[in-house]
Amino acid sequence: MTDATQRSLGTRGWLVLLTLCGATFMTGLDYSIITVALPEIGRDLGFATPAALQWVVTACLLPTAALMPLFGRLSDLTGRRRLFLAGVAAFAGFSLLAGLAAGPGLLVAARAGQGIAAAAIGPTALALMTSAFPEGPQRTRALGVNGALLSLGFVIGTIGGGLVTSGPNWRWTMLILVGIGLLVLLGGLTVVRERRENRRARLDIPGAILASGGLFTLVYGITTGGDAGWTSWPTLAALGGSAVLLAGFLAVEARHRAPLVPLRLLRRTTVKWGMTIGLVTFGMCGGATLLLSIYMQQVVGWNALQTGLGFTAEGVAALAAGTITARLISARGATTALTIGLTVQAVGTAAMVLLPASGQLALLLGTSAAMGFGHVLTVVAVITTITSGLDETDQGIAGSLAQMPTFVGAIGVAGLSAIVAARTETLAPTTTGTLATLGGLHTAFLVAGAVALAGAFAGRVLLRNSKVGRREHVMAA
């Protein structure tokens, strides 16, 4: 059987893939499109302060990160398709509520509902995908398409947010999600199937409480630490409380007969180091993308729509990476693909140190494209690494573990933002405000590139004895 034949998904396979990818595309689109619309939302609904307005984003992010392991394990126990459909329906419903919100309180509550629904969608969509496509070239190709569309969702959201807020109204940023959700729900009802097994294990309630509480306080501390101050008591209390809760979670899991997250999974080389590399790629790419937005708006002086269009090359590169990743992993293995991806991401990010104050479109597009291409290549290789070789009954929780770096990666955004602030403050007395900001951005871009390059080296060393890469190659032969 040829490699092309093994990678072929068939008509029904493509319908299943587009449905599941549509769900992850929807959640990625949501984050970026609402971020661009924040200023108009604040003016229209009368948010009292910028900190209060930021809760439009934070209220969605926190429950997604906190509840993902719980929903991942629930999907293994009760059925993934059922939870997936419930999550999509709830997401569409809360998106409609957010689009019709008449005041700040209702909007923030609706965003929290969207976050809970997204926590159900993420791991179930990935688990349904890994179950629908057998391990090997087909699954890798499916994951490649998923990774590309997830990144594309962010870019389209950035552009779409600029278009909507410059034209119709910010409410359309939410109403668009309702339409996508209904299409995904239709696909889920008609083409997505699940092999059902008798699952009699009971849910680990203590583990679920400790994991959710620990992740909630961790992401809260990371996302609010920059504004509140990293040495402020709320930040220290959140991060310290998170450490205590997560330590308690690990202690409970070691003794529970049916743990929420079996420690045998966390001990697997492919899982623990795959998640670590995932944290590096998401943290550095997410942070650098935010810094690029600051560069385009505060240094070059572009408006929201121009800034969104500035990310076009990153979206195109993400699609390109998604189309070739399966071939690269089949030919060279997931570890090699991961190393190449993070190296390309590192080079593209570090090269942003050359961006001038006057703006240089070709350089901007080239560096952001390299970063986006390498990032998607790395993400697909990481998910392939984490989910390969696992029992079918663990795919739901594995899906949540594979996506956890997406949210914990906010620590990269916080770290790089702190570097920008410190360097800008140092340069401010000797130059203009614009050049001081640019100097801070350049320093952070260099750090992000160095961290990504270190991650590429570490991934190569730590995963070199993994059988994932060789398994992919053998199955394609």
Largest sheet: none
Strand content: under 5%
Helix content: over 70%
Q: What structural class do you assign from the helix and strand content? A: mainly alpha
Q: Would you tell me the overall average pLDDT?
A: 84
How would you describe the shape? globular
How many extended strands?
Answer: 0
Rg on CA atoms, Å:
21 Å
* N-to-C order of helices and strands: HHHHHHHHHHHHHHHHHHH
Runs with pLDDT <50, length 5+? 469-477
Distance between the termini: 8 Å
Could you describe the 3D structure shown?
- The chain has 477 residues and is an all-alpha fold.
- It has helices spanning 3-7, 10-45, 50-78, 80-99, 104-132, 137-166, 172-190, 205-228, 233-255, 263-267, 269-299, 304-310, 312-332, 334-350, 361-387, 395-408, 410-427, 433-462, 468-476.
- Helix 2 (10-45) packs antiparallel against helix 7.
Q: What are the key terms here?
A:
477 residues; mainly alpha; 19 helices; 83% helix; disordered C terminus
Write a concise synopsis of the structure shown:
By secondary structure, the chain is mainly α. It is built from 19 helices and no strands.
Describe the secondary structure blueprint for this structure:
Layout: H1 3-7, H2 10-45, H3 50-78, H4 80-99, H5 104-132, H6 137-166, H7 172-190, H8 205-228, H9 233-255, H10 263-267, H11 269-299, H12 304-310, H13 312-332, H14 334-350, H15 361-387, H16 395-408, H17 410-427, H18 433-462, H19 468-476
Helix pairs in contact: 2-3, 2-5, 2-6, 2-7, 3-4, 3-5, 3-8, 3-16, 4-5, 4-7, 5-16, 6-12, 6-13, 6-15, 8-9, 8-17, 11-15, 11-16, 11-17, 11-18, 13-14, 13-15, 13-19, 14-15, 14-18, 15-16, 17-18
